[in-house]
TrEMBL record:
Protein name as it appears in the record: DMT family transporter
UniProt cross-references to PANTHER family, sorted A to Z: EAMA DOMAIN-CONTAINING PROTEIN (PTHR32322:SF2), INNER MEMBRANE TRANSPORTER (PTHR32322)
Places the protein is found: Membrane
The species this protein was found in: Reichenbachiella carrageenanivorans
This protein's record includes keyword Lipid metabolism: no
Keywords tagged on the record: Membrane, Transmembrane, Transmembrane helix
Membrane spanning stretches: 39-57, 69-96, 102-120, 129-147, 153-174, 186-206, 218-237, 249-268, 274-291
Length: 294
């Protein structure tokens, strides 16, 4: 078992758990009078200065690699990754529970493998297929009790979260190709700055300009989400993709729904069923398959 691969998987798991906390924080914030676009803006406003500092300190080592085409890729991935994917996710969470959001969102590993196969000509290995089957079986078992077609606006929420999955999968697949060229830290900083600017422009076009009049708890949650569910995991994810590849990261990320079960249970009071624990074990076995070499 490669040491660097194990480290990459650990970084991926940590990043996924922190990212998964975002859905819980969003649902906590929605207990106060704040809309999705304003909450997304707060997240990005708190995160933007941190990305700017890292971008200034950590400049590209190989300036020749920063071609016009690379910059266009960064802009494109910044738009689809943490702007569109986050926007669809925040809007979808208005209609559905945090735990149900996870099972829909985590169809993206399959989409990543498909994109990598079609556009980047990467073969899907037998070990990856086994891991996919195990992790998806675990997810289905873990969330079988959540799949009750009731609740107002359910289909709207499901559709928005699925769009988030597609756009995030595009970001992961594209970053897996670009990160080796310019480095994980540089790519993450630049792409996230683009995402932050897109959110700001979006708010200027459609926002209610009430950003200074929310309860203190909303700003605290926005700051926590920016630091622990945006900045830190974004760098962890990029480093893990560099070490294990986009396809393997997508499979490891299937642990995200399981972490959301635990977080939603603790912070939102959502119940845990024994099938969810069975699903957790299957997902962990799938993650173990990814850590081993073919």
């Amino acid at each position: 078992m490669s040491k660097s691969r194990v480290i990459g998987v650990i970084l991926a798991l940590l990043g996924v758990v922190l990212f998964s906390a975002k859905a819980v924080i969003v649902k906590m914030a929605y207990q106060y009078p704040v809309d999705a676009v304003s909450l997304l803006l707060l997240r990005m406003l708190f995160a933007l200065p941190m990305y700017l500092v890292v971008a200034v300190v950590k400049r590209p080592k190989d300036q020749a690699a920063m071609t016009k085409g690379v910059y266009l890729w960064i802009i494109g991935l910044g738009i689809v990754g943490y702007y569109l994917a986050s926007l669809f996710d925040f809007l979808g969470l208005v209609y559905i529970k945090a735990s149900l959001e996870r099972i829909i969102l985590f169809v993206y590993p399959t989409i990543v493998l498909f994109i990598s196969r079609v556009f980047f000509k990467k073969q899907i290995t037998r070990r990856q297929l086994i891991a996919i089957v195990l992790t998806y079986l675990g997810i289905v078992l873990a969330f079988v009790l959540e799949l009750r077609l009731d609740g107002e606006g359910l289909m709207m929420g499901v559709g928005l979260i699925f769009l988030s999955a597609v756009t995030y999968a595009s970001y992961i697949a594209g970053s897996g190709w670009l990160i080796p060229k310019i480095g994980a830290t540089v790519f993450t900083s630049y792409a996230m700055i683009i995402s932050c600017l897109c959110v700001i422009i979006h708010y200027l076009l459609v926002g209610d300009f009430n950003i200074t009049n929310y309860p203190t708890e909303v700003y605290v949650l926005g700051f926590v989400m920016a630091v622990f569910s945006t900045v830190i995991p974004s760098y962890l994810v990029s480093l893990s993709i560099k070490m294990i590849g986009a396809s393997s990261f997508a499979i490891v990320a299937s642990f995200g729904p399981i972490s959301t079960i635990l977080l939603a249970n603790y912070f939102l009071g959502e119940s845990i069923h024994y099938l969810q624990w069975v699903g957790t074990i299957l997902v962990m076995i799938g993650v173990f398959f990814v850590t081993k070499k073919d």
